[in-house]
Design goal:
Distance between the termini: 28 Å
Radius of gyration: 18 Å
CATH superfamily: Vaccinia Virus protein VP39
Strand order of the largest sheet: 7-6-5-8-9-11-10
Number of helices: 8
Bound molecules: S-adenosylmethionine
Helix content: 25-40%
Order of helices and strands: HEHEEEHHEHEHEEHHEEE
Largest sheet: 7 strands, mixed
Number of domains: 1
Number of strands: 11
Protein backbone atom coordinates (compact mmCIF):
# COMPACT_ATOMS: atom_id res chain seq x y z
CA UNK A 1 0.00 0.00 0.00
CA UNK A 2 1.50 3.29 -1.05
CA UNK A 3 1.47 6.02 1.52
CA UNK A 4 -0.30 8.47 -0.79
CA UNK A 5 -3.35 6.21 -0.83
CA UNK A 6 -3.26 5.40 2.85
CA UNK A 7 -5.94 7.75 4.13
CA UNK A 8 -8.25 6.86 1.33
CA UNK A 9 -7.70 3.17 2.09
CA UNK A 10 -8.17 3.71 5.80
CA UNK A 11 -11.60 5.23 5.25
CA UNK A 12 -12.95 1.94 3.84
CA UNK A 13 -15.51 0.26 6.04
CA UNK A 14 -14.96 -3.49 6.39
CA UNK A 15 -17.75 -5.99 7.20
CA UNK A 16 -17.90 -7.84 10.50
CA UNK A 17 -19.87 -11.11 10.55
CA UNK A 18 -19.74 -12.48 14.12
CA UNK A 19 -20.93 -16.03 14.72
CA UNK A 20 -21.26 -15.43 18.46
CA UNK A 21 -22.31 -12.59 20.69
CA UNK A 22 -19.71 -9.92 21.44
CA UNK A 23 -19.68 -7.92 24.65
CA UNK A 24 -21.11 -4.42 24.13
CA UNK A 25 -17.69 -2.82 24.85
CA UNK A 26 -15.89 -5.05 22.39
CA UNK A 27 -18.51 -4.47 19.72
CA UNK A 28 -18.33 -0.72 20.26
CA UNK A 29 -14.52 -0.71 19.84
CA UNK A 30 -14.65 -2.75 16.65
CA UNK A 31 -17.39 -0.64 15.12
CA UNK A 32 -16.29 2.78 16.28
CA UNK A 33 -12.52 2.66 16.65
CA UNK A 34 -11.85 0.39 13.70
CA UNK A 35 -14.85 1.39 11.57
CA UNK A 36 -16.12 -2.15 11.04
CA UNK A 37 -19.75 -2.60 10.09
CA UNK A 38 -22.05 -5.44 11.10
CA UNK A 39 -23.03 -7.32 7.94
CA UNK A 40 -25.03 -10.38 7.02
CA UNK A 41 -23.77 -10.93 3.46
CA UNK A 42 -20.25 -12.07 2.61
CA UNK A 43 -18.16 -9.40 0.92
CA UNK A 44 -14.38 -9.90 0.98
CA UNK A 45 -12.32 -9.09 2.92
CA UNK A 46 -14.44 -9.47 6.05
CA UNK A 47 -13.90 -10.17 9.75
CA UNK A 48 -15.47 -12.97 11.75
CA UNK A 49 -15.65 -13.40 15.50
CA UNK A 50 -15.64 -17.02 16.68
CA UNK A 51 -14.45 -18.56 19.94
CA UNK A 52 -13.46 -15.12 21.17
CA UNK A 53 -11.08 -14.57 18.21
CA UNK A 54 -11.33 -11.88 15.54
CA UNK A 55 -10.20 -13.20 12.13
CA UNK A 56 -9.81 -11.69 8.70
CA UNK A 57 -11.12 -13.63 5.70
CA UNK A 58 -9.58 -13.08 2.32
CA UNK A 59 -11.25 -13.96 -0.97
CA UNK A 60 -10.82 -17.75 -1.57
CA UNK A 61 -11.11 -17.22 -5.35
CA UNK A 62 -7.80 -15.41 -5.47
CA UNK A 63 -5.88 -16.39 -8.53
CA UNK A 64 -2.71 -17.78 -6.99
CA UNK A 65 -1.92 -21.25 -5.69
CA UNK A 66 -0.93 -20.40 -2.16
CA UNK A 67 -4.19 -18.56 -1.55
CA UNK A 68 -6.16 -21.79 -1.89
CA UNK A 69 -7.24 -23.26 1.43
CA UNK A 70 -5.82 -20.25 3.21
CA UNK A 71 -6.94 -20.09 6.81
CA UNK A 72 -8.48 -16.85 8.07
CA UNK A 73 -5.85 -14.56 9.52
CA UNK A 74 -5.70 -13.97 13.27
CA UNK A 75 -2.86 -13.50 15.74
CA UNK A 76 -2.15 -15.30 19.00
CA UNK A 77 0.51 -13.40 20.96
CA UNK A 78 0.49 -15.81 23.92
CA UNK A 79 1.09 -18.87 21.70
CA UNK A 80 3.79 -17.01 19.77
CA UNK A 81 5.45 -15.85 23.01
CA UNK A 82 5.45 -19.38 24.45
CA UNK A 83 6.99 -20.79 21.26
CA UNK A 84 9.91 -18.33 21.29
CA UNK A 85 13.16 -19.93 22.41
CA UNK A 86 15.86 -17.90 24.17
CA UNK A 87 18.27 -16.36 21.63
CA UNK A 88 21.92 -17.37 21.65
CA UNK A 89 24.58 -14.65 21.52
CA UNK A 90 25.54 -16.00 18.11
CA UNK A 91 22.10 -15.41 16.65
CA UNK A 92 22.39 -13.09 13.62
CA UNK A 93 19.52 -10.93 14.94
CA UNK A 94 21.30 -10.40 18.28
CA UNK A 95 24.51 -9.44 16.48
CA UNK A 96 22.60 -7.08 14.20
CA UNK A 97 20.88 -5.27 17.11
CA UNK A 98 24.25 -4.47 18.74
CA UNK A 99 24.83 -3.56 22.38
CA UNK A 100 23.24 -0.11 22.49
CA UNK A 101 19.57 -0.91 22.11
CA UNK A 102 17.70 0.69 24.99
CA UNK A 103 14.83 1.58 22.68
CA UNK A 104 13.97 -0.39 19.52
CA UNK A 105 11.44 0.81 16.98
CA UNK A 106 9.80 -1.98 14.99
CA UNK A 107 8.59 0.13 12.08
CA UNK A 108 6.90 -2.76 10.23
CA UNK A 109 5.02 -4.66 12.94
CA UNK A 110 2.98 -6.97 10.64
CA UNK A 111 1.93 -10.01 12.68
CA UNK A 112 3.81 -8.77 15.77
CA UNK A 113 6.21 -11.75 15.75
CA UNK A 114 9.41 -9.73 15.55
CA UNK A 115 8.07 -7.32 18.17
CA UNK A 116 7.50 -10.29 20.49
CA UNK A 117 11.08 -11.49 19.87
CA UNK A 118 12.40 -8.08 20.93
CA UNK A 119 10.21 -8.16 24.05
CA UNK A 120 11.46 -11.66 24.85
CA UNK A 121 14.98 -10.23 24.70
CA UNK A 122 13.90 -7.80 27.42
CA UNK A 123 14.08 -4.75 25.15
CA UNK A 124 11.82 -1.71 25.23
CA UNK A 125 9.97 -1.73 21.91
CA UNK A 126 7.62 0.65 20.13
CA UNK A 127 5.90 -0.85 17.08
CA UNK A 128 4.09 0.69 14.16
CA UNK A 129 1.62 -0.87 11.75
CA UNK A 130 -0.11 1.29 9.19
CA UNK A 131 -2.44 -1.25 7.60
CA UNK A 132 -6.05 -0.61 8.65
CA UNK A 133 -6.78 -4.27 7.87
CA UNK A 134 -4.23 -5.56 10.38
CA UNK A 135 -4.97 -3.02 13.13
CA UNK A 136 -8.15 -4.75 14.45
CA UNK A 137 -6.36 -8.15 14.44
CA UNK A 138 -3.37 -6.83 16.39
CA UNK A 139 -5.64 -5.01 18.81
CA UNK A 140 -7.67 -8.21 19.32
CA UNK A 141 -4.51 -10.28 19.90
CA UNK A 142 -3.44 -7.77 22.56
CA UNK A 143 -6.92 -7.94 24.15
CA UNK A 144 -6.53 -11.73 24.53
CA UNK A 145 -3.01 -11.45 25.98
CA UNK A 146 -3.12 -8.37 28.23
CA UNK A 147 -0.15 -9.64 30.26
CA UNK A 148 2.12 -9.08 27.24
CA UNK A 149 2.35 -5.35 26.98
CA UNK A 150 3.01 -4.46 23.36
CA UNK A 151 3.13 -0.79 22.42
CA UNK A 152 1.70 -0.91 18.89
CA UNK A 153 0.71 2.31 17.18
CA UNK A 154 -1.61 2.10 14.22
CA UNK A 155 -0.13 4.64 11.85
CA UNK A 156 2.88 5.19 9.64
CA UNK A 157 6.15 4.71 11.53
CA UNK A 158 7.42 8.00 10.17
CA UNK A 159 5.02 9.74 12.57
CA UNK A 160 7.15 8.53 15.50
CA UNK A 161 8.46 11.40 17.64
CA UNK A 162 10.86 9.37 19.79
CA UNK A 163 14.45 8.81 18.64
CA UNK A 164 15.11 5.07 19.08
CA UNK A 165 18.60 3.56 19.27
CA UNK A 166 17.70 0.91 16.72
CA UNK A 167 15.10 0.97 13.96
CA UNK A 168 14.11 -2.46 12.66
CA UNK A 169 12.57 -2.81 9.20
CA UNK A 170 11.04 -5.91 7.65
CA UNK A 171 9.33 -4.69 4.50
CA UNK A 172 7.37 -6.93 2.17
CA UNK A 173 9.52 -8.68 -0.40
CA UNK A 174 8.27 -10.37 -3.58
CA UNK A 175 9.18 -14.07 -3.96
CA UNK A 176 12.27 -14.53 -6.14
CA UNK A 177 11.06 -17.63 -7.90
CA UNK A 178 8.10 -19.95 -7.69
CA UNK A 179 9.98 -22.59 -5.69
CA UNK A 180 10.77 -20.08 -2.99
CA UNK A 181 7.24 -18.91 -2.26
CA UNK A 182 6.96 -17.25 1.15
CA UNK A 183 4.76 -18.64 3.91
CA UNK A 184 1.01 -18.62 3.23
CA UNK A 185 0.55 -15.92 5.84
CA UNK A 186 2.95 -13.61 3.98
CA UNK A 187 1.24 -14.35 0.64
CA UNK A 188 -2.04 -13.25 2.18
CA UNK A 189 -0.28 -10.22 3.59
CA UNK A 190 1.05 -9.02 0.27
CA UNK A 191 -2.33 -9.58 -1.35
CA UNK A 192 -4.22 -7.64 1.30
CA UNK A 193 -1.65 -5.04 2.23
CA UNK A 194 0.39 -4.39 -0.88
CA UNK A 195 4.09 -4.47 -1.57
CA UNK A 196 5.43 -1.68 0.65
CA UNK A 197 6.50 0.15 -2.47
CA UNK A 198 7.80 3.07 -0.44
CA UNK A 199 10.37 0.96 1.45
CA UNK A 200 13.32 2.95 0.07
CA UNK A 201 11.85 6.14 1.55
CA UNK A 202 11.23 4.35 4.84
CA UNK A 203 14.90 3.29 4.95
CA UNK A 204 16.06 6.86 4.23
CA UNK A 205 13.86 8.14 7.06
CA UNK A 206 15.16 5.42 9.41
CA UNK A 207 18.79 6.27 8.64
CA UNK A 208 18.12 9.90 9.62
CA UNK A 209 16.10 8.99 12.72
CA UNK A 210 17.91 6.09 14.48
CA UNK A 211 20.53 7.07 17.05
CA UNK A 212 22.77 4.02 16.52
CA UNK A 213 21.70 1.66 13.75
CA UNK A 214 19.06 0.48 11.32
CA UNK A 215 18.52 -3.24 10.81
CA UNK A 216 16.71 -4.45 7.69
CA UNK A 217 15.52 -8.06 7.47
CA UNK A 218 15.85 -9.21 3.88
CA UNK A 219 15.88 -12.47 1.95
CA UNK A 220 19.41 -13.84 1.41
CA UNK A 221 19.24 -13.14 -2.32
CA UNK A 222 18.35 -9.44 -2.03
CA UNK A 223 20.86 -6.91 -3.39
CA UNK A 224 21.92 -4.47 -0.70
CA UNK A 225 24.92 -2.51 0.53
CA UNK A 226 24.70 -2.18 4.34
CA UNK A 227 27.60 -1.49 6.71
CA UNK A 228 27.54 -5.18 7.67
CA UNK A 229 25.18 -8.09 7.09
CA UNK A 230 24.49 -10.97 9.48
CA UNK A 231 23.23 -14.02 7.65
CA UNK A 232 20.88 -16.65 9.00
CA UNK A 233 19.68 -19.76 7.16
CA UNK A 234 16.71 -18.07 5.44
CA UNK A 235 17.15 -14.33 5.93
CA UNK A 236 19.87 -11.81 6.50
CA UNK A 237 19.92 -8.80 8.79
CA UNK A 238 21.45 -5.90 6.89
CA UNK A 239 22.83 -3.48 9.43
CA UNK A 240 23.46 0.19 8.77
CA UNK A 241 25.53 1.96 11.44
CA UNK A 242 24.50 5.63 11.48
C1 LIG B 1 6.62 -8.17 5.92
S1 LIG B 1 5.47 -7.41 7.01
C2 LIG B 1 6.36 -7.39 8.52
C3 LIG B 1 6.36 -8.69 9.24
C4 LIG B 1 6.75 -8.54 10.69
N1 LIG B 1 8.14 -8.27 10.87
C5 LIG B 1 6.30 -9.73 11.49
O1 LIG B 1 7.01 -10.11 12.45
O2 LIG B 1 5.22 -10.25 11.20
C6 LIG B 1 5.56 -5.68 6.63
C7 LIG B 1 4.52 -4.86 7.40
O3 LIG B 1 5.01 -3.54 7.54
C8 LIG B 1 3.94 -2.63 7.39
N2 LIG B 1 4.54 -1.35 6.99
C9 LIG B 1 5.26 -1.10 5.87
N3 LIG B 1 5.69 0.16 5.85
C10 LIG B 1 5.23 0.75 6.99
C11 LIG B 1 5.34 2.07 7.55
N4 LIG B 1 5.99 3.04 6.90
N5 LIG B 1 4.77 2.31 8.75
C12 LIG B 1 4.08 1.32 9.40
N6 LIG B 1 3.91 0.08 8.91
C13 LIG B 1 4.49 -0.21 7.73
C14 LIG B 1 3.05 -3.28 6.33
O4 LIG B 1 1.71 -2.80 6.42
C15 LIG B 1 3.18 -4.76 6.70
O5 LIG B 1 2.17 -5.16 7.59
Amino acid sequence: MHLDNYHEYQSFIYPLMPSEELSPTLLETLLETFSLELASEIKYPYYSFTENILSLHSNPDLNFTSAKNMKPLSFDFRKEWDSLRPFSKKDPLIKALGNQRDLVLDATCGTGKDTLSFLKLGLKVISYERSPLLAPLLWDAQRRAPELELDIRFEDARNCHERPDVIFLDPMFPPKKKKALPKKEMVMFSHLIGKDEDQEELLKWALKTAKKRVVVKRPLWADSSPTISYKGTRVKYDTYIV
